[in-house]
Design brief:
Blueprint: E1 2-5, E2 8-9, H1 18-22, E3 35-38, E4 47-50, E5 53-57, H2 58-64, H3 66-69, H4 72-77, E6 84-91, E7 97-99, H5 103-115, E8 135-139, E9 143-149, H6 152-162, H7 168-175, H8 180-191, H9 195-213, H10 220-232, H11 237-242, E10 245-250, E11 255-258, E12 264-276, E13 282-285, H12 293-299, E14 312-315, E15 318-321, E16 329-334, E17 340-343, E18 350-356, E19 359-362, E20 367-370, E21 375-378, E22 386-390, E23 395-400
Antiparallel strand pairs: 1-4, 1-21, 2-3, 3-6, 4-5, 6-12, 7-13, 8-11, 8-12, 9-10, 9-12, 14-15, 15-16, 16-23, 17-22, 18-21, 18-23, 19-20, 19-22
Helix pairs in contact: 6-7, 7-8, 9-10
Length: 404
């Protein structure tokens, strides 16, 4: 059992309070803090802490004995790598409109860009590794997001409710073909419009959103989201594309699963996120970063479906979130009484993190105190781990692979 020191990623959309307060550091922080990474991603791995000093990276620890840390059955399957990356995400501003590739698309794209001689850190590179990136986010606070394409008929109703004459021809394009092909046609049209057209069309949509957001009715929340995005990203085609997506607000403890091809944008809130250990992102707008429209269109899924809110089940005192991903599984524990305890499931490598309260983590050889922002790596060899003496309201998250 190893205490972890975890890196903070300072992206511009981050919060100055959420991660700072979680880690017990001065708040507000001098700069936005967007993500706390817990894992063994090559770009920014966690380090183990010994005698209050950060020692080797989690990558080095795993490399030193994969059979012990990952388990003999997992070391070969995962190629000697930790298959998941755990994060705390804190968004005060919207993230970019984005999607992630399938495993096959990622492998092909990585090989293609390598053959072109693109540097691993080239800003125009889409595929930084050959892996897919399914992900799950569980809300710590109210969490606002745009996720997946809304049913075409519903989007027609929303666009008509905006009552923007300049959008009329586009609305009728979708109304005439209300399905995945129509959504693809309209999305493709919007995301490839000349900037001179966008400079007129996005402000027109903004004016419609202002009118609709001031009313009470079915589409107020969607109109407010469009209004916020258009104010932050004037003239951006991503504002128009966002009008075709499901708008959802998660309550704390609720979670979303994002499979390959799902176009999404997180708008605001804090959450615990777990994903396959990859950094492959294809952006569609709402960002100054590289946008590759042809590649994005190649990976997007235009089938409309309800927002992918995760089912969950009780797992011996933990809430386990159900997804088809084999690289990760997320569990959540909340102490509902004094001195609560729970067994930590055995099997494979695990990362355990506290977000509130306090508890003791015991294994055969050691005891560690887990408080807000504290995390430990549990190698496969650590079995029979127990969390006990948890104070009321203590909340813990456990990340493991999907085999555990």
């Amino acid at each position: 059992m190893e205490l972890l020191d975890n890196p903070v990623r300072p992206y511009a959309w981050g919060s100055r309070t959420v991660i700072a307060e979680l880690l017990g550091r001065p708040s507000p922080s001098p700069h936005p803090q967007a993500e706390l990474w817990l894992g063994a991603h090559p770009a920014d791995p966690s380090h183990v802490v010994r005698d209050d000093v950060a020692a080797e990276s989690l990558i080095e620890l795993i490399d030193s004995d994969p059979d012990r840390t990952l388990g003999a059955d997992r070391a070969g399957r995962w190629g000697g790598r930790l298959p998941f990356l755990l994060k705390v995400l804190a968004a005060d501003e919207p993230l970019s409109l984005q999607a992630h590739p399938s495993a096959e698309q990622a492998a092909a794209g990585f090989e293609r860009e390598n053959a072109l001689g693109m540097a691993q850190d080239a800003p125009e590179r889409n595929y930084r590794d050959p892996n897919h990136k399914p992900e799950l986010i569980c809300a710590l606070t109210e969490f606002d997001a745009l996720v997946g394409f809304r049913e075409a008929e519903a989007s027609v109703r929303f666009l008509r409710a905006l009552d923007v004459p300049a959008l009329g021809a586009y609305v009728e394009l979708l109304a005439a073909q209300p399905g995945p092909d129509g959504l693809r046609a309209l999305f493709t049209t919007w995301i490839t419009l000349p900037q001179s057209v966008l400079d007129d069309l996005v402000p027109a949509a903004q004016e419609g959103a202002v009118r609709l957001a001031s009313q009470t009715g079915e589409w107020c929340a969607e109109a407010r989201a469009v209004l916020e995005l258009s104010e932050r990203y004037p003239g951006d085609a991503g504002v128009l594309a966002a009008m075709l997506l499901n708008h959802i607000v998660l309550a704390p403890g609720e979670a979303l699963y994002l499979p390959a091809g799902n176009l999404h944008a997180y708008l605001s809130g804090a959450g615990v996120e777990v994903m396959a250990n990859s950094d492959n992102v294809l952006r569609g707008g709402l960002t100054p970063k590289h946008v590759d429209v042809p590649e994005l269109l190649r990976v997007l899924d235009f089938d409309s479906a309800p927002p992918p809110v995760c089912d969950w089940h009780d797992d011996s005192g933990w809430v386990a979130y159900d997804t088809p991903a084999v690289e990760f599984r997320l569990r959540r524990f909340v102490a509902d009484g004094p001195q609560a305890s729970v067994d930590v499931p055995d099997g494979g490598p695990r990362i355990l993190m506290g977000t509130s309260g306090a508890a003791l983590v015991r294994c055969e050889s050691s005891v560690l105190k887990l408080g807000p922002g504290t995390s430990v790596f549990l190698p496969a060899s650590d079995r029979g781990v127990v969390v006990d003496s948890a104070t009321p309201g203590t909340q813990l998250f456990l990340a493991a692979d999907g085999l555990a």
